[in-house]
Design a protein that fits this description.
Length: 334
């Protein structure tokens, strides 16, 4: 039987992967620890490794995996910024991913962040539970008619743009590859600086790479409207967090909603209640009343988890049968 070493395993992963993998010719060893060069020995004897967003697939990890006989790393996510593709290609370790499973899940989570930040339902919920029915500081704004700027209109950005259009927003976008079907729906493509200067809400849906790292920095913030809402459900390092703190302190940034954080590795996906949080930057962010942080849960819907399990299984099965791996990622392909 072919063995799969499954890193960063959570209960919801097991619930969704087990039924899909059962009956197939694959056995899974679940490890709740993350994959890095130090945990590589756990994968010994496993031809396939299944990894997630914060597993560290750097040169050292990949060399260790290859030396132990791992041939395929099946990512159970869309983003692959945590993989050293050059090292993988040199070592002959194949990498595949789940390019699309439910763009709606992430786009709808971005909307959840917007609505919560705007209408302050998280605060209202807590107040009402304490018999405090005061409306003080709960005033929001209508989304209808507001200008939304979408950075990256791939699968998730496209769904998000359509949702915002449906709410009566005006939507403009920036993407090096404009999407004609969105243009047909009245979404206009503009330069990044125009998007920064005209948007009431800016939502990030582009991948993290050398060009997009700290795309939202101090200079970008200075071009934005006072009171802008910034939403990031893509990858933490798209945003320079220190620049956010500066902008929030001087009131230029009106709202910040993030599902991802530059230093999330080691914090997110863990229950750290009862411990002293050592990260002073996220701790500072959490003190702002107009900041909402969720712990990388944009993908977390029943539908998305089921699709992720199904596609991951199909990727591994295809590889083991020696068929062309359509969801492979390599340097030539990107
Ligand atoms: P996609 O590949 O379909 O779309 C990305 C889009 O970004 C493409 O249209 C591309 O042309 C555009 N792009 C590339 N460079 C750009 C730049 N410099 N500026 C603006 N746009 C640029 O990817 P998809 O599926 O829409 O996912 C987007 C991101 O969402 C992923 O890279 C991933 O990091 C993140 N994600 C987050 C999840 C969560 O749970 N919070 C779950 C799944 C994905």
């Amino acid at each position: 039987m072919n063995k799969v070493a499954f890193f960063s395993a959570q209960e919801y992963d097991k619930e969704h992967f087990q039924p899909v993998f059962e009956g197939g010719n694959l056995s899974i060893s679940y490890f709740d620890t993350m994959l890095d060069q130090y945990t590589v020995p756990l994968a010994k004897g496993h031809g396939v490794v299944c990894a997630f967003v914060n597993d560290k697939l750097d040169k050292q990890t990949l060399e260790g995996l290859q030396a132990q006989g791992t041939e395929l790393v099946a990512l159970r996510c869309a983003g692959f910024n945590n993989v050293d593709l050059e090292a993988a290609s040199r070592l002959g370790v194949k990498i595949c991913r789940v390019p699309a499973y439910s763009p709606e899940a992430v786009a709808e989570h971005a909307l959840a962040l917007i609505l919560t930040l705007n209408r302050k339902t998280h605060k209202a919920y807590n107040r009402v539970r304490e018999n405090n029915f005061s409306l003080h500081h709960l005033t929001g704004f209508n989304l209808n008619g507001k200008q939304v700027g979408v950075i990256g209109t791939g699968m998730i950005g496209q769904v998000f743009s359509t949702i915002m259009k449906g709410l009566g927003c005006r939507v403009m976008a920036f993407d090096p590859k404009p999407n004609p079907s969105l243009q047909d729906k009245g979404i206009t493509y503009v330069s990044l600086s125009e998007l920064f200067s005209k948007s009431d809400i800016i939502s990030l849906h582009c991948p993290l790479n050398d060009k997009t790292k700290h795309l939202i920095n101090k200079e970008a913030v200075s071009q934005m409207k006072k009171g802008v809402m910034i939403i990031n459900t893509s990858r933490g390092a798209l945003i320079d967090t220190q620049a956010m703190i500066g902008g929030l302190k001087n009131g230029h940034i009106g709202y910040l909603g993030i599902d991802v954080y530059e230093q999330e590795e080691g914090i997110f996906f863990k229950d750290l209640s009862g411990m002293v949080l050592q990260d002073d930057i996220i701790s500072r962010l959490m003190t702002f009343p107009n900041v909402l942080i969720t712990g990388h849960q944009g993908f977390l819907t029943q539908e998305a988890l089921h699709e992720i399990a199904k596609i991951t299984y199909a990727n591994i099965d295809t590889f083991l049968k020696g068929k062309p791996l359509k969801n492979e990622i390599n340097l030539e392909g990107i």
